[in-house]
Specification:
Length: 439
């Protein structure tokens, strides 16, 4: 790994890209510390600590602590992520957008332009909700029109600026810029989380042996989860495809064998994000309007939707929310894959190009076969996602371990790191250098 990095820095183009990416990430972390004018940051930190649930924990993790500190990057790139997901869904629902997507590079640029506008709109909406909702509760040192507008403009500008940085990293740096920004935000929170785990389970142990055992268990769980995520991200089912030979002029062409790679985790982290967002939406709204505390059936439902109350031996009734969460993850895994992979289209394209799956007739039998394999692969991937997501939740419920990162964060970290490594490797392979993945 170190030798590969040394080789990478010997290549001026790759070295410049890595340095450019690093400098942009420095700007991101500096902006995450700059306060919004007129905001009482002490109030917000106290408010955040008083929340009984963890609806904002993941949001704070993906913003790199900017949300908790109420900095100019408090919204971070979450509006862009939401906008991208919305555009992916609308591409299936709106024929004109679907045509744009199939229109090559020009169509992609048009969709990207629309995504930017949607991002700004969402940032304005979220900034307005935070400025007005939190402002009324004491977030602002003085609640007035000017201060509210200042908060909204600052949050929107910060989110838009981060979107611009992400696009510049993609163009002039290494890897996918938005993913890199998301990665550095999550990683920035991990040291403080590990310190909290150390103080809670190791430093507070009654004996050295118990402390060492707790440390080994934590390390084993983290390493095992990371290894499992790597396997989940890299796993795929390869469906063999054979192309028939045909005459072109005086030459016989075709006859080669290839395969269709179906990733085990076909939908990535999207099902977990969708399921978590759907469950946390009522909790977030209740927190914004100050209705998250109290008694009654409404408060009990909110507790059941909060993951910190799941897998709690003293209150097993709230684990019903975990069952709902599992069902939603499986549903969204099938739903998202169904709009990104069309077996009928793949079957028709194979038929047009003279390809077929050995032992399967072209046409409807091929479509049915692909559907059968796809359903099986999606289920395996969804189960893998559930395992990764539930491990931190189980430890939180049973042992009271509270951390901002969890299974979702680990999947993002591993996915982005592997993707970035592959991109650097591809640039180095062109120059006959040994890559990361061959070490």
């Amino acid at each position: 790994m170190l030798a590969t990095l040394q080789n990478a820095f010997k290549i001026k183009d790759i070295r410049d890209r890595i340095i450019y990416t690093f400098l942009m990430l420095v700007v991101v972390r500096i902006g995450s510390q700059l306060p919004i004018p007129g905001v009482d940051r002490t109030y917000f930190a106290n408010w955040f600590a008083s929340q009984s649930g963890d609806a904002f924990n993941f949001f704070d993790a993906v913003t790199g602590g900017s949300f908790l500190q109420m900095s100019v990057f408090a919204l971070n790139i979450t509006p862009y992520i939401t906008s991208s997901i919305i555009m992916q869904l609308l591409t299936i629902a709106i024929p004109k957008l679907e045509e744009m997507q199939k229109d090559g590079e020009d169509g992609r640029k048009k969709i990207q332009k629309i995504t930017r506008y949607v991002t700004v709109g969402l940032a304005l909406l979220e900034g307005g909700a935070m400025g007005i909702g939190f402002g009324r509760q004491g977030l602002l040192e003085e609640y007035n029109f000017i201060n509210v507008v200042m908060v909204i403009v600052t949050l929107t500008a910060g989110s838009t600026f981060l979107m611009w940085i992400g696009e510049r990293i993609t163009e002039k740096g290494v890897g996918n810029g938005i993913s890199i920004v998301l990665l550095i935000n999550i990683i920035s929170r991990i040291p403080s989380d590990f310190i909290s785990l150390y103080e809670q389970f190791v430093a507070s142990s009654s004996s050295l042996a118990k402390g060492a055992m707790a440390l080994l268990i934590i390390a084993a769980v983290v390493i095992a989860t990371i290894v499992f995520v790597v396997l989940l991200q890299g796993g795929q089912r390869r469906i063999p495809v054979q192309y028939a030979k045909k005459m072109q002029g005086r030459k016989m062409v075709g006859g080669q064998s290839t395969f269709i790679p179906l990733k085990v985790n076909t939908a990535g982290v999207i099902p977990i994000i969708f399921a978590s967002s759907l469950l946390q939406f009522p909790v977030v709204i209740a927190s914004l309007i100050g209705k998250n505390q109290g008694t009654g059936i409404g408060a009990e439902i909110l507790k059941g939707l909060t993951s910190s109350n799941w897998v709690n031996p003293s209150q097993p009734i709230y684990s019903i929310g975990l069952l709902v969460y599992i069902v939603l993850v499986i549903f969204f895994a099938y739903f998202y894959t169904s709009i990104t992979f069309n077996p009928m289209e793949v079957s028709n394209n194979m038929k047009k190009q003279g390809g077929f799956i050995p032992g399967i007739r072209p046409g409807k039998p091929t479509t049915d076969y692909l559907n059968k394999i796809l359903n099986y692969v999606i289920f395996i991937g969804a189960v893998g996602l559930i395992i990764v997501a539930v491990i931190p939740i189980a430890f939180s419920g049973i042992f009271g371990a509270s951390v901002s990162f969890g299974g979702t964060s680990l999947i993002i970290i591993v996915g982005v790191v592997l993707d970035t490594m592959k991109q650097i490797e591809s640039k180095m392979v062109v120059r006959n250098y040994k890559g990361f993945l061959n070490d």
